[in-house]
Amino acid sequence: MKIAVLTSGGDSAGMNAVVRAVVRGGILKGCQVWVVREGYEGLVRGNTEAPEPEPAPPAFPDLPPETDGDINLIHNLRFGDGQLLRDGTGDYISGRTLKGRYIVRVGWDDVRGWFSEGGTLIGSARSKAFRTPEGRLAAAYNLIKEGIDALVVCGGDGSLTGADIFRAEWPNLVAKLLSESIITKEQATAHTHLKIVGLVGSIDNDMSMTDLTIGAVTALHRICEAIDNINSTAASHSRAFVLEVMGRHCGWLALLAGVSGGADFIFIPERPPDTESWEDEMCECIQRHREVGKRKTIVIVAEGALDKFLNPIKADYVKDVLTERLGLDTRVTTLGHTQRGGRPCAFDRILPTIQGVEAVQALMEATPDTPSYMIGIQENKITRVPLVDAVAMTRSVADAIEAKEFDKAMSLRDPEFRESLEGFMAISTLDHKTKTIPETKRMRVAIMHMGAPAGGMNAATRAAARWCLRYGHVPIAIHNGFRGLLDDHIHELSWLGVDSWTARGGSELGTNRTLPSIDLGAVASKFQQHSFSALLMIGGFEAFSSLLILEEGRKHYPALHIPLVHLPATISNNVPVTEYSLGSDTSLNALVDACDAIKQSASASRNRVFVVETQGGKCGYIAIMGALATGASLVYTPEHGIGLDTLRRDVRFLKTRYTLDEKGRAEGRLVIRNEAASEVYTTDVIMKMFKEEGGSLFDSRAASLGHTLQGGIPSPMDRSRAARLSLKCMSFIERQHEILMNQPPKTRHALPGSAAVITVQASSIQLMPVQDMVGQADMKNRRGRNPWWLGMKDLVEALVGRPQLATKL
Ligand code: ATP
């Protein structure tokens, strides 16, 4: 198959990772791959110049004749050196001029190092010509001329609409080209069908049928960095800030920034304030916050925010309202294009990589009868949805807004969007009129952090505490885990007290690893003494173990017959069943930052392999996903172990790889090793082995990331998920409490299901009874069995060509 990949519409972080994954994933499947420069405009313009002859690959030493099948790969490995990226002009690729050439065949090394670059290195454009039938006819001809039969389009809803139109029109375009004798009959027969797959690259996250678009999370990072910076100055001067963020038709960035940044009020297009005067509503809300002692005010306005009559709500006007009505010293900050720019965050390297490979797979499986797919993601599951449906549904959101059908607009957004909005309302408003519940239903909810600190623990606590206060419950912080409980180290949380916790790293409550088995009787008596109605434990494997102990302890201690919930939070992501723990995203971002810097230093002077050691205990999640996010050459995990045979092949791979590199340019490579991957082959041993074996080809150094992986400031994704998952835990607790309260007090008996862990499994979030999870827990190694990410090691290695190259030389 001959595949072309293009990026279109507004650029977004992660588009380069898409191109890298499609190029390498395609080559691995035996395809030839082209990049189309400047989006659809490049398709329309095509190639007016013949390509310069490819440089002949230098003779490869000792290539065994039976490896014919791999020669394509080897050839491609030698093809190109990423000049497109490095010269920054976009006019050269692999040292060859691109003048007059928009559809360019690329090879393996052309996309090396593209991970860490923002924007799109192959260029993007908004093409007027492609909107016309003549333009699309030219595009079809240019593809057929190159023999290309499959297209991957990465862009926003407009670009995918264009793709959908192009696909639908294709047979007519081919017929027209044939009737006008522009193409031959053979060409027409060979191109009866164009295979298209869409990937959503857009910072707005405005595409329906996918939870996240490529680049949206990086944009959210930029916004949250700005809010965090503004927060300190706003508090210092007791100021109000109105922030305008991108999002013409979609309020996702404004909403998630509101949740993650702890804003006071937000304006989004899908859900305008439901009152005649939003000015009154906003002022009342902010006035209340000020009355309880808040010194800073943050209001976030989406670029396309509207009132219920469809009048635009603009940041400057919001500022005037705050200044005039509340007398606040108010400033406006428009973030503009800074939101687009910058290095992609870990998520925007992993998502496009997996989706890019999936796009190639979808093309391989496509037949004239299968629909063109858009590759999406739902919670943690990569999905394929018909492109036409996604495009139609996206359009219907805009139509619903235009028709003032805001409920419908909201219903067309994904569940995360809706839940985040409900969550934002629940935790950001401090309202006299909030729904309070009868005395009998009120709870004293204990909240505890366990194990090592992880990003998002504080945000989860803030959300739980505010939810409690909103509904008339009492949130009680237990400091320093079960040890703190035994010392009565507890206090009630207040609305203002937790205000700035979203952005705080570490653990505001203090945490330790002591399990309740230290003295279960004493723990139960403390539950009774403090009249806890429920317990929320936020932590890692210790919290999971504690939950099991407490659940079993119910046989002996009536005080433990209360809802008991564990919200997984650990950078190791080693809690069984769940695919996601709070803190793991923050940690991956810390790893990506460190590795980008290390790789740069490794490439600066000479060929160098850096062996980077990560935390994670006996769980290789951070190592594997970190390797995927940084384009590491090799990864060692406790699950796979390390043996002499593996090391021998790895040394062979590195030698071959360095032999194939362009001479005269230093190249740094990363090897990521989990701290517990092997007791014998330590990071130091591996580094020395590589150094010795590398000889004149490459040198080696080691670096241990240690506690830096706990990350300083939590990532926006950890903050927003913390709020969302925490609120789901609280609803669960409330339901379970109600069931218990319906029983006679003396014989109150909590069912096993009321001791649960909140889990993310593929596309669903479930509170799973802890007893049901035991079978899937490897208690000795403190990790889950068969986690979803284990197979990603193969992908890491496939995308650097390790399986092929390790057998050469
Ligand atoms: P962003 O979300 O960043 O705005 P987008 O993909 O939605 O990205 P658009 O400008 O809407 O950006 O579309 C990009 C390109 O896709 C257009 O310049 C045009 O070439 C093509 N395109 C969009 N809509 C259509 C259409 N209806 N028919 C043909 N081509 C289209």
From TrEMBL:
Any GO CC annotation of this UniProt entry: 6-phosphofructokinase complex
Entry annotation: catalytic residues: D204 (proton acceptor)
Pfam families linked: PFK
Entry keyword annotation includes Lipid biosynthesis: no
Free-text activity regulation comment from the record: Allosterically activated by ADP, AMP, or fructose 2,6-bisphosphate, and allosterically inhibited by ATP or citrate.
Catalysis: reaction(s): beta-D-fructose 6-phosphate + ATP = beta-D-fructose 1,6-bisphosphate + ADP + H(+)
Subcellular localization: Cytoplasm
UniProt-annotated stretches for the region C-terminal regulatory PFK domain 2: 444-809
Gene3D superfamilies noted in UniProt: 3.40.50.450, Phosphofructokinase domain
EC number(s) given by UniProt: 2.7.1.11
Residues binding ATP: G10, R126, S127, G156, D157, G158, S159
Region annotation (N-terminal catalytic PFK domain 1) ranges: 1-429
Binding positions (Mg(2+)): D157
Chain residues that bind beta-D-fructose 2,6-bisphosphate: R513, T570, I571, S572, N573, N574, R608, Q615, G616, G617, E675, R701, R782
Pathway annotation from the record: Carbohydrate degradation; glycolysis; D-glyceraldehyde 3-phosphate and glycerone phosphate from D-glucose: step 3/4
KW Cytoplasm (keyword) present: yes
Signal peptide: none
One GO process term, biological-process aspect: canonical glycolysis
Origin: domain of life: Eukaryota
Keywords: Allosteric enzyme, ATP-binding, Cytoplasm, Glycolysis, Kinase, Magnesium, Metal-binding, Nucleotide-binding, Transferase
Subunit field text: Homotetramer.
Similarity section: Belongs to the phosphofructokinase type A (PFKA) family. ATP-dependent PFK group I subfamily. Eukaryotic two domain clade 'E' sub-subfamily. Belongs to the phosphofructokinase type A (PFKA) family. ATP-dependent PFK group I subfamily. Eukaryotic two domain clade "E" sub-subfamily.
Function: Catalyzes the phosphorylation of D-fructose 6-phosphate to fructose 1,6-bisphosphate by ATP, the first committing step of glycolysis.
Protein name in UniProt: ATP-dependent 6-phosphofructokinase
Lineage: Eukaryota, Fungi, Dikarya, Basidiomycota, Agaricomycotina
